[in-house]
Amino acid sequence: MKLEELKKKIDAKTARLAVIGLGFVGLPVAAMFAAEGFDVTGVEIRQERVDKINRGISPIEGKEPGLAELLAKVVAQKKLRATSSYQDLVDCDIILIDVETPVDDQDHAPRYEALGAALRSLGKVLKDGALVIVESTIAPGTMQTFVLPILEENSQRRLNEGFYLGCCPERVMPGKLLANLRNLSRVVGGGSPETAATMQALYRHVVNADLDTADWITAELVKTTENAYRDVQIAFANEVALICEALGGDVWKVRQLVNKSPYRNMHLPGAGVGGHCIPKDPWLLAYSVRDRDVPLHVIPSARAVNDNMPVYLANLTAKLLREAGKRIEDARILVLGYSYLEDSEDTRNSPSEILIQKLTGLGGKVAVHDPYVAEYQGDVYQKAAGCDAAIIMVAHSTYKELDFRQLQAVMRTPLLVVARPLFNEQQLEHARQYFSHLHQIGVGR
């Protein structure tokens, strides 16, 4: 099939779509294309997730506006079905790949086991003239050196002859999946200008923002650079917060006044950076020049600053406990929030995990509460009973409604650490009525 024919099928919505990987990215992508009238097949290796999706039930917990309703609708309309078999993709014209691409904890190299497995399985059933689009975030150069060779070898076809290949990295965050997919611009990288134009026509069905055409390397660079930029900016804000604490300043007031100047956008400091993207993508960008003579200083330094914030917070809590007359070895500490993002179940690269490891390593006993993570759900005040410190790690909306008087009444020691910008100054003043030891990150005393 030629691209001209595929473009006509896209315009008529008769092109058959597949999405490999039905997680935080693939599931909403599949549902949105199905809602636009395309027949969509989703491939997912977790059978329990396949079964749930085919019953019209979203496996994604947390506040995800519109997703559960949209999924139920398109499944009922028989526009979307999930499967664990790649054999079901033999007639698909377009295949989107949305699998995880983590990095190794030690050397920060990308781990492409899931991507490689998906490409090999897909190659064996790839339809002649099909368009394959990698939406997963990958290190710059991966399309050329990893994706293309695997597809050509396993499909026994050549690029731009037997199949077409594109790269259009996702730009979503939990809690805003559908809104992000619809409203954020995308870079559409094709193996040829004609492929990029065909991809642009496809995404125009679901994206209301700019769709900028480019080549593979540009698409790969833009996505990894974007998140590396955010990581660096957050690290700067975190270092300023530490300086403010040491000098008796207020980072929130400093940030507000700095950002009054034109072209300034100081980010929010906090207890660390989590999720699947920001802790990983800077390393993907750095990895792309691992064998070239390019000295890197800013990206690794930013990663070190942000990774250290939960460790700093644990040490700070131990210090605050001592000031309150309590040894951490004798203390019970409540960590409020385990997901990496407010009102989400997503625990990938959770800063709370590092915090808990450090607190227990210092000898503390730790209780955890999170309204969206099944393992840690329950009554927050029951979990706080007998605790000597409470650390708010995630800005869940439910924590904005905390009853400070009730929380303090059940705790053994009135120590509250606020590690996220959850409360305004009036609310913090109210909290101080009950917590004689209250510390907000980035504010010196």
Short description:
42% of the residues lie in helices and 13% in strands.
Topology:
Blueprint: H1 3-12, E1 17-20, H2 26-35, E2 40-43, H3 47-54, H4 67-76, E3 80-83, E4 94-97, H5 113-125, E5 130-134, H6 142-155, E6 163-167, H7 177-183, E7 186-190, H8 193-203, E8 211-215, H9 216-247, H10 251-258, H11 281-287, H12 298-323, E9 332-336, H13 351-361, E10 365-369, H14 380-384, E11 389-392, H15 404-410, E12 415-418, H16 425-432, E13 437-440
Describe the structure.
With 445 residues, this protein is an alpha/beta fold. It has two domains: 3-209, 3-Layer(aba) Sandwich (Rossmann fold), CATH 3.40.50.720; 231-440, NAD(P)-binding Rossmann-like Domain (Rossmann fold). Helices cover 42% and strands 13% of the residues. It has 16 helices and 13 strands. The protein has helices at residues 3-12, 26-35, 47-54, 67-76, 113-125, 142-155, 177-183, 193-203, 216-247, 251-258, 281-287, 298-323, 351-361, 380-384, 404-410, 425-432; strands at 17-20, 40-43, 80-83, 94-97, 130-134, 163-167, 186-190, 211-215, 332-336, 365-369, 389-392, 415-418, 437-440. An eight-stranded mixed beta sheet has the order 3-2-1-4-5-6-7-8, sandwiched between helices. Strands 10-9-11-12-13 form a five-stranded parallel beta sheet. The protein is elongated and about 75 Å long. The model has no long low-confidence stretch (mean pLDDT 96).
